[in-house]
């Protein structure tokens, strides 16, 4: 059975981790499947992505059995090579979703530990079920978070929060995660809510949505004020008066939904 499935319905790609008997724990095959799924969507004709896990958990982290094999041998030879641009395979599990040019909405339930937590951080938006457990679990195994977490976490949470979670490996509930900026919204039906948000996004100008994601990524990259202001103007010039924007104006004037080519 595939570790990950991708289904596109009405311009929305539904990416599902399909290893529920293992709480969607990440082994090398799962990591490869997640990355392949993300890469397949970079040039796809889609407007949003819903990322979820089948069964009672979003993702329980690294598969313990595969972890034992992964820990053997020379760690530098295994994890230092940059196999996916500026990342290795396991870093790309989270980072590939920032390369997908449309918004990615994560639907999180049960647990999101370690690798699963960092995967969720790769999404633009995270909807979590009440009581969902979140953890930077690596310290439990004498490791540090190394799947893109240190790129993604500082954009979401305070330094003291990141340090506490990293040093202790203590799980927190989604409600605390929301207060700390790690969860966007709590909802009893996270998948349905994520789907609803994706449908809302899919009705907006496709070119403006893509421009907005590019602009936000650039603004969060540490670029200076001058560069960000120039990027705002550049992206705006790229959508203003173009077919998608003109269709939005016409639809608003006519009181109908826009229809994009």
From TrEMBL:
- Provide one Gene Ontology biological process annotation: fatty acid beta-oxidation
**Carries keyword Transmembrane helix?**
no
PROSITE patterns the record matches: ENOYL_COA_HYDRATASE
What SUPFAM superfamilies has UniProt attached to this entry? Answer: ClpP/crotonase
> Do you know which CDD domains this protein is assigned to?
crotonase-like
- Pathway of action: Lipid metabolism; fatty acid beta-oxidation
GO terms (molecular function) for this protein are:
enoyl-CoA hydratase activity; isomerase activity
The protein's superkingdom reads Bacteria
| Keyword terms of this UniProt record | Fatty acid metabolism, Isomerase, Lipid metabolism, Lyase
EC number(s) given by UniProt: 4.2.1.-, 4.2.1.17
Gene3D superfamilies found in the cross-reference section: 2-enoyl-CoA Hydratase, Chain A, domain 1, Lyase 2-enoyl-coa Hydratase, Chain A, domain 2
Keyword Lyase belongs to the record = yes
Entries under PANTHER family matching the protein: DELTA(3,5)-DELTA(2,4)-DIENOYL-COA ISOMERASE, MITOCHONDRIAL (PTHR43149:SF1), ENOYL-COA HYDRATASE (PTHR43149)
**Family under the similarity heading:** Belongs to the enoyl-CoA hydratase/isomerase family.
Q: What's the protein name?
A: Carnitinyl-CoA dehydratase
Organism encoding this protein? Roseovarius indicus
